[in-house]
Amino acid sequence: MAKLSNTESIDAVEQRLTLPGAAKKKRRTEWFYLKKNSELLLLLTPGALLLLIFSYLPMFGTVLAFKDFRYDKGFWGSEWIGFDNFKFFFVSDNAWLITRNTVGYGLVYMILTTVIALTFAILMNEMGKKWLRIHQTAMFIPYCLSWVVVSYLALALLDSSNGYLNKILEFFHMETHMWYLETKPWPYILISAYLWKNIGFSTLVYFAGIMGINQEYYEAAKIDGASRWQMATRITLPMLSTLIVVLLILAIGHIFVGDFGLHYFIPNNNGMTFPTTDIIDTYVFRALRVYGDIGMSTAIGLYQSIVGLVLVITANFVVRKISEENSLF
What we know:
Helices cover 70% and strands 1% of the residues. With 329 residues, the protein is mostly helical. The chain has 2 domains: 10-67, no CATH class; 83-326, MetI-like (MetI-like fold). The chain has a two-stranded antiparallel sheet with strand order 1-2. The radius of gyration is 27 Å and the shape is globular.
């Protein structure tokens, strides 16, 4: 029997006596769940390693944003220069232009993707199984293509001399265009390319959410004489509200990080289109390629990450104030 010291209470003694057994039981329970979910953990391993290697380990390199990196002095030996690397971007004449493009395109992509993907998901829910499989496959295939491949498809359409789009305009006796030397058409081209490639994946995400809704709600609505529109607006959308809000919060965090592949390969990195196609990512890449300033590119990447984090936290805070159950955290 354990002795009770002058300063130790009876509850403390009982906790001390029972702790080893409880800890052992807890370890057995944890091992049981690990063993039970071993297949799922095995499936998780490649994604976790990818996230670790490309997202977490490179975070050590953020120190280069505050250094004048030189290859001969190395990672730690380079001179500390504070915020000088950030000045390259902020004092640039194009800073406002590329920031406007980055944020503007990000907002348009987010809003249109959400609206169109939800619409397609609701329409797919009304299809028969045969046509549903065909539409799922057709919509998801573009998502698997790289922007390099898509850029060649765009070139086949937009080439000034042999492009299909100019050939169609010629057929209808309309004025042809030098697409890669103009600025005005590119917002529409880039938005169309983005939606064509990414809308299928977002649609399937929302469609999977619709499949998780209890079908009894729809059956009860049919008995009450509800129309398809009423079921979509009164059942489907409210049930998907949490999923929609979570995806929107995550999308808001990427507003300040543009799609490099889209804005670099589709316009073919043509300087004539920069006023309407250039974003922060392509601007920094060209600066890195021309000047080789690793510190500057790291500084802009860090700046984008911090702004994205602030946007996510702010959006989640606003959502939590409105409806706590729909917030991300």
